[in-house]
Amino acid sequence: MKPQNPYIKKTTFAMQGSLATIHRQPWFIPVAILLCIIVLLQMIPASHDENLSSMAHSVVNIPMDELRALINKEVNQVMLESSKADIIRGISGASGTSKYPPVKKLPEGQSLRILVTGGSGFVGSHLVDRLMGAGHHVIVLDNMFTGRQRNIIQWLGHPNFQLIIHDVIEPIMLEVDQIYHLACPASPPHYQYNPIKTIKTSTEGTLNMLGLAKRVQARMLLTSTSEVYGDPEVHPQKETYWGNVNPIGPRACYDEGKRVAETMMYAYETQANVEVRVARIFNTFGPRMHPNDGRVVSNFIIQALQGKDITIYGNGQQTRSFQFVDDLVEGLIRLMNGEYSQPVNIGNPDEYTVKDFADLIKGITNSNSSIKMLPATKDDPRQRKPDITTAKEKIGWQPRVPVREGLIKTIEYFRKELEESGEIVPTGPSASKPQQHKQKGNYRERKQKRGRM
Ligand code: NAD
Ligand code: UDP
Ligand code: UDP
Questions:
Q1: Can you identify the CATH homologous superfamily of domain 113-452?
Q2: pTM for this structure?
Q3: Residue 319's beta-bridge partner residues?
């Protein structure tokens, strides 16, 4: 065999990242044929080279030198087009060095293949950023119900990254070392939109991921929730508390779905030796929350920034404890890679009444919005605060980001979302589908603004 031609290696590499954007170009098929011929020429022994190159001559009917020059030109064009596409996507490196965020180079054998279900959602996309940055190979599996491609666009085309549009309730065969199983809508209006689907996602979806973990001997982490404690009668909540859940109320599709998902995790641990980790996540906020997810943080910030009424459900005396998303991601990674396999609360014990939280956001945004009291929603938990002793002792984790600091970053994110959209109508308390918020101006105006017309 001849040594690998570095020119071809470079070409193949450059094309990997940009294939998705170039395959529709008119020159793509001829260039692809020419490249295949060149690759073949490189792969065969020298004695066959002449025969094949004359075959190539007769196919394309031009001398080899010219053929190489032509391919060179076309490949340069491919690279130019691909970097143009990246500029349009807004992810080109400042000095043209790398169009992707920095990624650590891990020694052979240390880079894991990690599956993140729900990886294009709010939490999942931050987790993906951390895992990619650490040098791992990441597969995102998502049906895009509440996920957004813009959350992971910074990695599209990266050789360590793969996006699979797939619903977890369908079986799938993959080869991975770790599974972070996040797939499930998390905001009440979204998980109540199609409760049967929410139950299937938590039950059938988790079963499939456990079957996969069992087959390939992967370690699997489930993102469970503080909702397994329901409307808690114990405060703050320790992992040993069994909860107070209404099994037939509007929140049951989510709460009971996660409870049975936890049950399945430990059944697979006991019966099939699957290594499991269970994170019970408390209310989390940060950039990339879906603007229409109807959760308290997104709603209050969007309402405050637009000077609209801040809507409180009930008397506002119910409490929640809020953590910034970076802290959560750190906790998930520590839990996955630690030795402790029982459920762990991951949350910030900084507890607020909903009314105080509304005032806090009004203050930070300097908003003159009024507070509007609406009827309470059914089965709304009256209090919630994590006891994080287990997290501290077993995985050496505690939150680092103060709520105010996290809110400032989140407000900045929503300000940008609003600039782009013009207006966002927050989702109310009743079950609803995630909406793509309205874009500013009509289609022609937006294109002109981006200089594409
Ligand atoms: P999210 O709605 O932003 O993300 C969920 C992701 O899962 C989305 O990308 C969605 O498209 C995907 N998904 C939903 N159903 C799917 C299916 N059937 N197949 C494949 N993909 C599917 O929510 P999030 O806030 O990022 O929550 C992530 C996980 O963390 C969820 O499991 C949630 O229950 C858990 N959690 C979150 C919070 C929080 O405050 N954010 C609190 C407790 C638990
Ligand atoms: N499964 C999957 N991918 C795999 C292995 C299993 O999606 O790589 C699914 C499988 O289709 C089944 C579920 O996981 O629905 C549970 O698998 P398991 O082997 O535990 O149970 P069984 O198939 O024996 O019922
Ligand atoms: N909430 C509110 N106004 C809103 C959205 C939510 O008063 O516009 C309240 C909600 O009733 C609950 C708390 O804020 O008491 C947290 O709601 P969220 O939907 O964020 O999450 P939950 O913890 O209930 O799952």
A1: NAD(P)-binding Rossmann-like Domain (3.40.50.720)
A2: 0.82
A3: 353
